Amino acid sequence: MITILRDRHNYSVVFCLSIFVSLIAVGCGETKYAQCEQIIQIANRVVSEKTKLIDTESSANIESKTWLQAARMIDQAARKIENIDLQDPKLIQYQANLAQVYRIYSQATYDAVRAWESKNIKALQVAHTDAEKAGQMEVKLGNGINNYCQ
After folding, report:
1. What's the rounded Cα separation, in Å, for the pair 57 and 53?
2. pTM
3. pLDDT digits (tens, 9 = 90+) for 20-55
4. Overall fold of domain 31-149
């Protein structure tokens, strides 16, 4: 490296190369950050909408149409998550897992509505268990995504 830096022209080349490398590194960071933000925004909307639906009516009086609306919203979120164009391999894994969690939530909600309407207590318990598992997975994924994206 010392022999390269003997004249001014080479100093300029090295300086420009170091700036170029720095810009590439920053650009990659922004890409990861932007990809993280897309996932986080969708996940936050799901949490917000679920909370809003449940807070709107007391849990005991929530109608089937409200639960079906929640299931559709969560299913749409799964599709939005899947449609994000990601390059980061770790984020791609988080993307797939989060979409899977939303599919489980959505299906459990549909199953719960059917079970409730048919008064099938066993099926309602299974749907509840599935939703709880999805909730646990969602918390772990949320923590993982937040840690990775910081």
Report:
1. 7
2. 0.72
3. 333 333 344 458 888 888 888 888 888 887 777 666
4. de novo design (two linked rop proteins) (1.20.1440)
